UniProtKB/TrEMBL annotation:
Family: Belongs to the glycosyltransferase 2 family. Plant cellulose synthase subfamily.
The keyword Metal-binding is assigned to this record: yes
Residue ranges crossing the lipid bilayer per the database entry: 225-242, 254-273, 826-847, 859-877, 897-917, 938-959, 979-997, 1009-1029
Composition skew (Acidic residues), residue ranges: 106-115
Membrane topology: Multi-pass membrane protein
Residues binding Mn(2+): 489, 513
Descriptive protein name: Cellulose synthase
Cofactor(s) this protein requires: Mn(2+); Zn(2+)
Native source organism of the sequence: Betula platyphylla (Asian white birch)
Taxon lineage: Eukaryota, Viridiplantae, Streptophyta, Embryophyta, Tracheophyta
One CC-aspect GO term: plasma membrane
Length: 1048
């Protein structure tokens, strides 16, 4: 990392004010980056190599798709024997083994000795660098390759580590099974068994290393087919039901009938938007062992791609520093090469408390990281590791583990005490402001008016207590000045993108909230199985992981886990164009964040045949193969820019200590170019209008494999990093419009992912067996409702913006089912209006004695029964293929009603006021203390205006039930029949709002809420019955005698 220039000092400055201050820092120099040039295979990433006559090896003579000799041999022996690009069958070349289907006339007697050899004898064992291949045949950067091909020719010596994981018997068994498969394919004869055993192992490992890094696991047809059939049946039944409802009005309750039909029609539309994106659910599996075999060969440089990890915080007093420290510790101890991990922490509150916390965290990491790696600790966040109720001795064999664990736990407790002391000190700010340890005033004393700050806390040379290198850790606080729009979290994330691009420029970035720690130390490797895939990785904008949470009550009263969304909806989207971005736990591909389009290839030609005459092919609608046509890949926008950058030579980023920040340098060196090249050079001046006025950052966007520009110095990079986080940097650029996190909504995550999908990018949903990340969620009713309010408000803002999926980018590459899912994410808050009306109808019907449905006929009863049965069948079959429990599904249904009649309703009106009238309203929360230690926050009562609508609905429906029962008692048996329908709907509302009632009532001296609810209802009903029976009054027999009056 080049940013180790100021390991011991905080750098603060403002580009607009031409200020740069280095507080107690020193400089170090970084060696320049080397470049290498080579020709690489598009399947595996190795060098293609040359034939015996010195010519470049060409596998396919039709399209010239670049494939190396080992991949060519493997495709012929194990694959479909065709070119990956044009599907033309590979012809056998000299020195290659014969396979079934080779033409006899191609047989060369000189190649007889090589007939049954499956091993490639053209190993390039002296390769030193991994190179990157661009679509136009250009090559650059020697470190690693995120968007190309990665597997290479493999020799057995490269996999001694994998062989050691098996016993001799197991290894021989695997070799024998592989040889049997080869014999079945006709690739080897049983007579060849006299070959050297080492060759067999080499051949086996060659085949094993070239296997895919992941596979798609479709849902079994026995589970998904009945599910789809029921969906179609439910759609048909719904159409007949709505037809019946429209054609049979209730004339005695006409207004109620109209309201109910409108609500039911909207519910049907909402169900369609939610249901059909789940038509193609899939799951995926990754193969981490193959990833290691392919990119971490013994004796060669590690070729895994670097990753920059972003952690965002705002207020350390609301987001406890100890939680942020645990997240950072889990990142620093992740199971990934340390020189390829850099952690950037964004402090949007410019808090000295967080700055000091990170300094303490870095010191504790020197002991915590080697402990985790030595004993393979999971999870690697100490707070959660030491608090887990588990057998921590399981799978531990080293005698020293217990002693070292005890010592580490004691050190962590001392670390917590130091952090708590910092928090206690930060509660009261001194009048003169905070002062750093060396007596320098803290630059961020005014959180709304301060310069940009960068501190490289752990640099490239940082070592742990065992002398091993640690990942990089950088503190970043962007500049803030009055009068500038800072765009909250989205603006902070964009600042991190630019800073990381200047200092490390890893091709992939992991985005985490400060309360989401890495629960699975191999999470980054899981993502790399997709992003480093030679075919899929180029077209992926991000890999999204599900959110999992700690500290939620066992019954998940308010559906905090969101299991239905993460385990059902997201799997469905993964089968279309990919899951939506949910704001955290996501690994991004940098080109997607920069607004580039994904690489697009021309469609493959249709399959043809040579076995039929031309007239037959014409009649059948096919065509014979004509003379070969060379297919060329279309150049994406990023590669076009890259080609232009190459034509500029060394004039773009100048070597040495000269002024590398002067954009006028771009105009140098125009002599000697033709008009086309000159126009390309001049177009570079438009980069500043897109990315901002930073040549170093612009150069980083053109480096496909990441890395830093050649000839840069640490001091200049730090200065440029301060420049790119200045408050005015984004003015008159496309940041927040087309680049980075998109502005315009408090839910910037949905908007950002939507823009990427519109450009044609795909995303992937990765669900490892051990959850990759875990976080904390508000389990209190009021806090949960405010969280849902924020999400719904963001959806309303998107609905009222130009990015609304209803009308945005119809000429783009967004698939229809994916668009339907995005429409559902911005339309769902508006469901609150019909839902509130529909939940009020049962109470009105009970109080007025009217009903929204006229007298039921047999046909109408069939419609109702079929609709309810189809709803139940859909839910059961959905649970069957997804593995979600029925309790999670029920909790999700309950909170859909609770949130719909409270937070979603307020979000609609708040969004309309904010967008149309410019009025920004906030709902305040006041809290009371809780008594319980465990899950105490669950019973914490906080009053907020969001509680008013659900409370009103519960009271209305309970009063309606009492009134309806009393009316039936007074009117005799004839009125009980119509009453049951009304009571059914009223109880439907009460049951769905029951968790809300529990949260409203708290624990009530540990008396269950259900007891209180039934006590009130039954007491009221029995009181009415008692009054109706009137047992204490004497019963009269005979005619009723009335007292005569004056007119008797």
């Amino acid at each position: 990392m080049a940013s180790n220039a100021m390991t011991g000092g905080l750098v603060a400055g403002s580009h607009t004010r031409n200020e740069l201050h280095v507080l107690h820092g020193d400089d170090e120099q970084r060696p320049p980056t080397r470049q290498s040039v080579s020709k690489t295979c598009r399947v595996c990433g190795d060098e293609i190599g040359y034939k015996e006559d010195g010519e470049l090896f060409v596998a396919c003579n039709v399209c010239g798709f670049p494939v190396c000799r080992p991949c060519y041999d493997y495709e012929r022996s194990e694959g479909n024997q065709s070119c990956p690009q044009c599907n033309t069958r590979y012809k056998r070349q000299k020195g290659c083994p014969r396979v079934a289907g080779d033409d006899d006339e191609n047989f060369d007697a000189d190649d007889f000795d090589d007939e049954f050899q499956t091993k490639n004898h053209h190993d390039d064992s002296d390769r030193q660098h991994v190179t990157i291949h661009s679509e136009n045949g250009d090559y650059n950067h020697p470190q690693w390759k995120p968007t190309g091909s990665f597997a290479g020719s493999v020799a057995g010596k490269d996999f001694e580590g994998e062989r050691e994981t098996y016993s001799n018997a197991e290894w021989k068994e695997r070799i024998e099974k592989w040889k049997v498969r080869q014999e079945k394919r006709g690739l080897v004869n049983k007579d060849d068994g006299n070959n050297d055993q080492g060759d067999d192992q080499d051949d086996f490992l060659l085949a094993e290393a070239r296997q895919p890094l992941w596979r798609k696991v479709p849902i079994a047809s026995s589970k998904i087919s009945p599910y789809r059939i029921v969906i179609v049946l439910r759609l048909i039944i719904l159409a007949f039901f709505l037809r019946f409802r429209v054609l049979t009005p209730a004339y005695d309750a006409y207004p109620l009938w109209i309201i109910s039909v409108i609500c039911e029609t909207w519910f049907a539309f909402s169900w369609i938007l939610d249901q059909f994106p789940k038509w193609f659910p899939i799951t995926r599996e990754t193969y981490l062992d193959r990833l290691s075999m392919r990119f971490e060969r013994e004796g060669e440089p590690n070729r895994l791609s670097p990753v920059d990890v972003f952690v965002s915080t705002v207020d350390p007093l609301k987001e406890p520093p100890i939680i942020t420290a645990n997240t950072v510790l889990s990142i620093l101890s992740v199971d990934y090469p340390v020189d390829k991990v850099s952690c950037y922490v964004s402090d949007d509150g410019a808090s000295m408390l967080l700055f000091d916390t990170l300094s303490e965290t870095a010191e504790f990491a020197r002991r915590w990281v080697p402990f985790c790696r030595k004993y393979s600790i999971e999870p690697r966040a100490p707070e959660y590791y030491f608090s887990e109720k588990m057998d921590y001795l399981k799978d531990k064999v080293l005698p020293s583990f217990v002693k070292e664990r005890r010592a580490m736990k004691r050190e962590y407790e001392e670390f917590k005490v130091r952090i708590n002391a910092l928090v206690a000190k930060a509660q009261k700010k001194p009048e003169e402001g905070w002062v750093m340890q060396d007596g320098t005033p803290w630059p961020g004393n005014n959180t709304r008016d301060h310069p940009g700050m960068i501190q490289v806390i752990l640099s490239e040379g940082a070592l742990d207590v065992e002398g091993k290198e640690l990942p990089r850790l950088v503190y970043v606080s962007r500049e803030k000045r009055p009068g500038y729009q800072h765009h909250k979290k989205a603006g902070a994330m964009n600042a991190l993108v630019r800073v990381s691009a200047v200092l490390t420029n890893a091709p992939f970035t992991l985005n985490l909230d400060c309360d989401h720690y890495i629960n699975n130390s191999k999470a980054v490797r899981e993502a790399m199985c997709f992003l480093m895939d030679p075919q899929l990785g180029k077209k992926l904008c991000y890999v999204q992981f599900p959110q999992r949470f700690d500290g939620i009550d066992r019954h998940d009263r308010y559906a905090n886990r969101n299991i239905v969304f993460f385990d059902i909806n997201m799997k469905g989207l993964d089968g279309i164009q990919g899951p939506v971005y949910v704001g955290t736990g996501c690994v991004f591909n940098r080109p997607a964040l920069y607004g580039y389009d994904p690489p697009v290839s021309e469609k493959r030609p249709k399959m043809t045949c040579d076995c039929l005459p031309s007239w037959c092919c014409c009649c059948c609608g096919g065509s014979r193969k004509s003379k070969p046509k060379k297919k060329a890949w279309k150049r994406p926008a990023r590669e076009t820019l890259h080609q232009e950058e190459k034509m500029m030579g060394k004039n773009y980023v100048r070597k040495g200590s000269g002024n590398m920040f002067d954009l006028e340098d771009i105009e140098e060196g125009l002599e000697g170019y033709d008009e086309l090249e000159k126009s390309s050079l001049m177009s570079q001046k438009n980069f500043e209008k897109r990315f901002g006025q930073s040549p170093v950052f612009i150069a980083s966007t053109l480096m496909e494999a990441g890395g830093l520009p050649e000839g840069t110095s640490p001091t200049s990079l730090i200065k440029e990093a301060i420049h790119v986080i200045s408050c005015g940097y984004e003015e008159k650029t496309e940041w927040g419009k087309e680049i980075g996190w998109i502005y315009g909504s408090v839910t910037e995550d949905i908007l950002t992912g939507f823009k990427m999908h519109c450009r044609g990018w795909k995303s992937v949903y990765c669900m490892p067996k051990r959850p990759a990340f875990k976080g904390s969620a508000p389990i209190n009713l009021s806090d949960r409702l405010h969280q849902v309010l924020r999400w719904a408000l963001g959806s309303v803002e998107i609905f009222l913006s130009r990015h609304c999926p209803l009308w945005y980018a119809y000429g783009g590459k967004l698939k229809w089912l994916e668009r339907m899912a995005y429409i559902n994410t911005i339309v769902y808050p508006f469901t609150s209006i019909p839902l509130l009306a529909y939940c009020t109808l049962p109470a009105v019907c009970l109080l007025t004695g009217k009903f929204i449905i006229p007298t039921l006929t047999n046909l109408a009863s069939i419609y109702f029964m079929a609709l309810f049965l189809s709803i139940i069948a859909t839910g059961v079959l959905e649970l069957r293929w997804s593995g979600v429990s029925i309790e999670d599904l029920w909790r999700n249904e309950q909170f859909w009603v609770i949130g719909g009649v409270s937070a979603h309703l307020f979000a609609v009106f708040q969004g309309l006021l904010k967008v149309l009238a410019g009025v920004d309203t906030n709902f305040t929360v006041t809290s009371k203390t809780a008594d319980d230690a465990e899950f105490g926050e669950l019973y914490l009562f906080k009053w907020t205006t969001l509680l008013i609508p659900p409370t009103t609905l519960i009271i209305l429906n309970m009063v309606g039930v009492v009134a309806g029962v009393s009316d039936a008692i007074n009117n005799g048996y004839g009125s009980w029949g119509p009453l049951f329908g009304k009571l059914f709907f009223a109880f439907w509302v009460i049951v769905h709002l029951y968790p809300f009632l529990k949260g409203l009532m708290g624990r009530q001296n540990r008396t269950p809420t259900i007891v209180v609810l039934w006590s009130v209802l039954l007491a009221s009903i029995f009181s009415l019955i008692w009054v109706r029976i009137d047992p204490f009054l004497p019963k009269q027999k005979g005619p009723i005698l009335k007292q005569c009056g004056v007119d008797c």
